[in-house]
Structures are given as C-alpha cells and as structure tokens.
C-alpha cells in the first residue's frame, strides 16, 4: 500500500463527506429523520452512526480526548460534520505520519484506520443514493412527474438562446451548451438501452458506454460519435428518448420498479432508482446552464 500524507488523507476524508452531503441534499428534512432505508434505519441514524465511529477514530488517535454527546436526529448532519472536521484537522498536521501505528498493541496504521472512515462514508453515500430513488420514497406517478419535470427544465434552460450562442458559449469546462446537451443525449440513449433489456442488459448492448479508461475519455468518445448532429438533431434526440423513457416508466409494473437489476459499471439497484438518478443527471446539467444564464444577466 502506498503511503499517503496526513494532508492527502484529510482531503479524501473531506471529499467523502462532501459527496454524502450532496446526496443528502436530495432529501427533505422530514425524510432524513423519518425515511425508511433498505436496512430499516433512517438517514439520520446512518449519519449518527458515522459520527459515532468518526469520534471513536479520533479517540484512537488521541486516547485522552472524550467525544461530545450524540446530537439529536434533526442535527445528525451537523454532528457528522463536526466529527469529520475535527478528524480532518487532526490528521492534516504535518507531524502525524500516515504510517504511524495507532497504538502499541495494534498492527493497524493511522492510514488504514482513516481509509476505513473514508470507505464508510462512501458506502453510506451509496446507501443514501439508493434510498433517494427507491420505491420506499417514490410512488409511480410522483416519480413520473419528477422525470418529466427534469426534461422540461433542461429544455427551458436553453429557451431563447440563439444557435450561435449554443455552439460557442462554454458552460461546463470545454463543453459548449450544445456539447452539454449532446452529453445528456448520449446518456439518455444509455438509459434506454438498459431499459430495453432490464434487468440484465447484455454486455454488447452497453459496450459503447463501458469502454476502458477514465469517464472523461468515455464522454469524449461519446461526444465524438455524435459530432455530426446539429442542434435540431440534438433537440429531436432529447425529445425522442425522453418519450421512450417516460413510456417505459408508465408501463413498468410496481414489482418491476421495486426490483433490482444491472445498472452497468458493476452497480445494481432498483429500477425506480435508475429512472431517478438519470433524471437527476439531466437536472445537474440544466443547473449548469441556468447558472451560466444568471451570471450573464448579473
């Protein structure tokens, strides 16, 4: 195992918490305290458990330190943030080597101890994400409405923008607005391909989206495959695949929506979660366009 500095471990600790917090932002406060996750606990209980274990980690590093009382359920995120911030500040000190032993009678290093906390936060974020899109949270009609609203929001975000601006303005790194829409189209095509063979899509069906390499390289390849599409073709494709996706959701049985399947990338999840997370993908990119418009108007 490569040795990591305390600063790097603190960065990974913070990043894993930030990802969890972003996922949590998709829930209403009442859902955090009372939502029923797959393992029978609430999201707040998940956070309180993480915070308790983070403080236990702190106490292993600084044995004389006593952790604070557990917060109430409605303050669970604050409690985890406090514990994680304390842990990050503690381990980022230059005089704390990443490979130092946590105690004289333990073979566990500080690095392995902290990587356990990073992995715990990542696993919790995955469980929360699955809950966000689960049938325990969504009924068919509310989920259908959500999917439709995200598509309409994306299309509304480009309303009144000239084709020249769509092609020239950069809103997401090197991507123009047209490029961003083309990216959304590519992954809507992926969603439809999965839906056509749910719950077990054949590897050859989704091979184009599963190419070896970093996700940025895959996105670049998907963009290159659609380079010939003009704005009319991109908009028509978005509308066509949106209709197909909504049709698949409308016709799916309740049992199918609650059933697990292969989402690609080695992930499994409920069909309802797949519909949800792909709609969130549209929403995230629509937000980038709305943010660009707001900055332009200010």
Explain what you see.
- The protein has helices spanning 6-24, 29-34, 43-61, 76-91, 110-132, 140-157, 163-168, 177-196, 215-225, 231-251, 254-258, 271-297, and strands at residues 170-172, 175-176, 260-264, 267-270.
- It is mainly α and 298 residues long.
- The chain has 2 domains: 6-132; 140-297, Up-down Bundle (Four Helix Bundle (Hemerythrin (Met), subunit A)).
- The strands form 2 sheets. A two-stranded antiparallel sheet has the order 1-2. It has a two-stranded antiparallel sheet with strand order 3-4.
- The radius of gyration is 22 Å and the shape is globular.
- 31% of the residues are buried.
- The mean pLDDT is 91.
Descriptive tags:
64% helix; 2 domains; mainly alpha; 4 strands; two-stranded antiparallel ribbon; globular; 12 helices; Four Helix Bundle (Hemerythrin (Met), subunit A); 298 residues
